[in-house]
Amino acid sequence: MQLELLKRMEITVFRAALEEIKIAKTSEGEILTKPFLDACKHMLPVVDKCGASMSLVKNIVDANIMKLESRYLSNPAKFNNLQSILRADAAAKATKSSSSCTTALLWLTRAMDFLVELFRNLLDHEDWSMIHACMISYNKTLKKWHGWICGSSFMVSLPTTPQL
């Protein structure tokens, strides 16, 4: 059932995200803020389908999107690309602040890495349970960045039964 739903989602949600990603990078290599954030937003309904236990991941992704989008909307011309947002944090000497857009982008991309790995595992290993796929994906992508408490919280929040 997990695989069937993921394949159906591939046609709609994943395809929409991939289309956004195609236009997010300019020929000069800059990542455009709005298309990048729109592509990330396309993943939120997929995470919803994974059940309430994945709300931690969804909330992290959503909060970081909102922080970056807020900066973008404060001056769309100035913050048209992600580099300009990072440069503004650097100029304000705020890159290491937990409330910075730099930190938001860092954790957004880490969460996206986790989600991509999770979906890849679910598609490649039809026999894996959701919890097993989550644990393998977490260990490969996020574990190295989390301390003991955060890692334990994540493991406790894992789905006990597949919702897909």
Please characterize this protein's 3D structure:
By secondary structure, the protein is mainly α. The chain has a single domain, classed as Glycolipid transfer protein (Glycolipid transfer protein, GLTP, Orthogonal Bundle). The chain contains 8 helices and no strands. Helix 2 runs antiparallel to helix 4, helix 4 packs across helix 6 and helix 6 packs across helix 7. The chain is globular. Keywords: Transport. It comes from Kalanchoe fedtschenkoi (Lavender scallops). This is Glycolipid transfer protein domain-containing protein.
Summarize the helices and strands and which ones pair or pack.
Elements: H1 2-24, H2 33-41, H3 44-49, H4 55-74, H5 82-91, H6 101-124, H7 130-141, H8 148-157
Judged by helices, strands and strand pairing, the structural class is mainly alpha
CATH superfamily: Glycolipid transfer protein
Can you count the beta strands? 0
Q: Which word captures the global form?
A: globular
CATH topology: Glycolipid transfer protein, GLTP
Q: Return the average pLDDT rounded to an integer.
A: 82
User: What would you report as the Rg, rounded to the nearest angstrom?
Assistant: 17 Å
CATH classification, class level: Mainly Alpha
Number of domains: 1
Q: Sheet bearing the most strands, described?
A: none
Protein name: Glycolipid transfer protein domain-containing protein
InterPro entries: GLTP_sf (IPR036497), Glycolipid_transfer_prot_dom (IPR014830)
Keywords: Transport
Domain Glycolipid transfer protein: 31-163
